[in-house]
Design a protein that fits this description.
With 211 residues, this protein is mostly beta strands. The chain contains 2 helices and 12 strands.
Length: 211
C-alpha cells in the first residue's frame, strides 16, 4: 500500500514538473546598443527630438514566447540631450524633469497583450518626475535570438508610446500671442532595445580593483 502511494505521488510530481512553464532567462539591457528617444511639438508647428543617453535594466524572456516577457528598465534622467546645451539645462531644471530630485525614470511591465504580425502590447508602470502612471507600449519584436561575437545570446525589439507630460506633473509651458503653447503636452516615445544573455561558457567578468 505504501509503495503504491509513493508511486502515485511520484507520477503526480513528474506530471506537474512536465507541465510547469520553464523559467525565463534574465537578459541584460545593452545600453550601448539601446536608445530611448522622445519628440514634442514646438510652437505648434515643428517637431523637436531628444534622447536619454543612459539606460539599463533587465528583460525576462524564455527566448520563445512573448508571454514570458517582463521588463524592468531604468533611464538616467540626467543624460537627456537635445543638441542644445541651454535647452538641456532647462529640461533638467525643476520646471521640467527636476533631475536633482528625480534622477531616474523607470518602467516595470505588468502584463503582455498578444498581437499579430510580430507585434504585441506591453503594459506597465512608468515612473517619471516622482509620479507613476500605467502606460502601454506598442512593441515590434522580439527579433530572432542570435549569437554575439563572444558567444552570448542577443535579442532586440522596438516600442512606441504616447504620454501626456501633464499627467506626470511636468507642467511648464509658455503661452504664445496667438493663443498657442511653446511645447506640446503630448510626448511621443520611441524605444530600441537590445538585450544580451551571457554564454554559460563565457568567462566571468573580472572583479573591480579595490582602491
Amino acid at each position: 500500500m505504501h509503495r503504491s502511494v509513493r508511486f502515485v505521488s511520484a507520477l503526480v510530481f513528474a506530471a506537474l514538473v512536465a507541465v510547469a512553464p520553464a523559467a525565463a532567462d534574465v537578459w541584460q539591457i545593452d545600453g550601448a546598443h539601446s536608445s530611448a528617444q522622445f519628440s514634442v511639438t514646438h510652437l505648434m508647428i515643428s517637431t523637436v527630438r531628444g534622447e536619454f543617453g543612459s539606460m539599463s535594466g533587465t528583460v525576462e524572456f524564455d527566448g520563445k514566447s512573448i508571454a514570458s516577457i517582463k521588463v524592468d528598465a531604468t533611464i538616467d534622467a540626467t543624460s537627456i540631450g537635445t543638441r542644445d546645451e541651454k535647452r538641456d539645462g532647462h529640461l533638467k531644471s525643476p520646471e521640467f524633469f527636476d533631475v536633482a530630485k528625480y534622477p531616474t525614470l523607470t518602467f516595470k511591465s505588468t502584463k503582455v497583450v498578444p498581437g499579430s504580425g510580430g507585434a504585441f502590447k506591453l503594459v506597465g508602470d512608468l515612473t517619471m518626475h516622482g509620479v507613476t502612471k500605467e502606460v502601454t507600449l506598442d512593441v515590434i519584436g522580439p527579433s530572432q535570438v542570435i549569437k554575439g561575437m563572444r558567444g552570448e545570446s542577443r535579442v532586440a525589439a522596438s516600442a512606441t508610446a504616447k504620454i501626456n507630460r501633464q499627467d506626470f506633473g511636468v507642467k511648464w509651458n509658455s503661452n504664445l500671442d496667438g493663443g498657442g503653447v511653446a511645447v506640446s503636452d503630448t510626448v511621443a516615445i520611441t524605444l530600441d532595445i537590445e538585450a544580451k544573455l551571457p554564454s554559460p561558457s563565457a568567462p566571468a567578468a573580472p572583479a573591480p580593483a579595490i582602491k
